[in-house]
Amino acid sequence: PYKWPSVTSYFGMMDLCGFPKDNVYYLKSWWQQKETVLHLLPHWNWQGREGDTLDVWVYSNAEEVELRLNGTSLGHKKMEKNGHLSWKVAYVPGTLEAVGFVSGKEVKRSTQSTTGEAKSIQIAAHKTHLHAANDVAMLTIDVLDKDGNHIPTADHLIHFEVEGPGKIIGVGNGNPTSLEKEVFVDSYQQLELPDAKVWDVNSPEMQQTLSTLPKSEQKGIVELKEVKGMTTTFHLEDAPGANQKFTWLYTHVGKTQRIYLNGQLLSEETRDGTEASFELPNNWLKKGENDVLIITEPFPPKNQWDTPNKKPGTLQIIEMAETPHRKMFNGLAQVIVQPTGKGTITLKAVAPGLKSATLELNAQ
């Protein structure tokens, strides 16, 4: 009895992006009755191997196949049922062509041609209209020569940009050994600031800390009454990068607070009872210890067993994702785009030395 192909067989036919492998045509030539199947492999881009003998295969359900190289016949062969045909061919750039015959009449041709240098990128979508928030468009990226021919050996690194109400939720190329990222998302880290120590403004410790501030700042702080200096530090393993964003989610430690970061005035007056967060300039931060100074009247304990808050909050570090990119494999790459709202989504694909490509999707 006939057995349907297993899941393992399916993945032997399709690569990880769903691009068909040569085996698809091998099995199709067995089973297809209504359509003529004629598949020629491998590609014919073997620059540097001129004169080398290569194995050329044909999968077909035609009765007979002729192989030609640059117009010269390399012979006819009868197609065995559920089999394949093969020739030994010395590589010469040009066009390899298979011609299928049934009852002596030509029924189909298949070619593999040597392509020129890569010139441009092409984007094709399986659909261009998206109708729901969880809808997606599968976009195929390939590289073309000056005559518009697909280059099966292209391995360019392609970068992708999206404009409009959409996002890239995945990239791929079908290479089972690739270690490249398939998803590009921001990474988040939270650093809880240690408890602040409380000092009298006129204490030696505070005088040393105040000496790092501009003189105008020092004078204004010393003249304040009933305030304390609260100090803490936080440690950064590396100097801030251009792709990092630092946000201080502040927690109040006093009624009114004047806040300094590494000697820079971050907030002149932050009042208790209000939400507070600060976007920290990257050039204010440094590798190693970063100093925090808060001039405030600390919260008094309401009861003798109370411990007023001395934790000035949490530092949120966002490392923004790289621009989505993927190296091509067998001349192909794939991008998955999902809508985030209604309107026109524009995907752009770029690579050095190649003419870029754009494609518009309509999100309804």
Q: Measured on Cα atoms, how large is the radius of gyration?
A: 33 Å
Beta percentage is: over 45%
How many helices in DSSP terms?
Answer: 4
| SS content category | mainly beta
Q: What percent of the residues sit in helical stretches (DSSP H or I)?
A: under 10%
Instruction: Outline the low-pLDDT stretches.
Output: 1-11
Count of DSSP strands: 25
Largest sheet: 5 strands, mixed
Order of helices and strands: HHEEEEEEEEEEEEEEHHEEEEEEEEEEE
Please report the distance between the alpha carbons of the first and last residues: 48 Å
The average pLDDT score comes to 92
Silhouette: elongated
Which strand order do you get reading across the main beta sheet? 9-25-24-11-22
Identify the notable features of this structure and list them briefly.
364 residues, mainly beta, 5-stranded mixed sheet, 5-stranded antiparallel sheet, 4 helices, 9% helix, elongated, disordered N terminus
Layout of strands and helices, then pairs:
Layout lengths: L6 H7 L8 H10 L6 E4 L11 E8 L3 E6 L2 E7 L6 E6 L4 E8 L2 E9 L6 E6 L3 E2 L6 E8 L12 E7 L2 E7 L14 E6 L4 E4 L3 H7 L4 H8 L5 E9 L7 E7 L3 E8 L2 E8 L5 E4 L7 E11 L14 E7 L5 E3 L4 E8 L3 E8 L6 E7 L1
Parallel strand pairs: 9-25
Antiparallel strand pairs: 1-2, 2-5, 3-4, 3-6, 6-7, 8-10, 10-23, 11-22, 11-24, 12-23, 13-21, 14-15, 15-20, 16-19, 16-21, 17-18, 17-20, 24-25
Give a verbal description of the structure.
Helices cover 9% and strands 46% of the residues. The chain is mainly β and 364 residues long. The strands form six sheets. The chain has a five-stranded mixed sheet, with no helix packed on it. A five-stranded antiparallel sheet has the order 14-15-20-17-18. A four-stranded antiparallel sheet has the order 4-3-6-7, with no helix packed on it. A hairpin with a 2-residue loop joins strand 17 (254-261) and strand 18. The longest helix has 10 residues, at 22-31. 24% of the residues are buried.
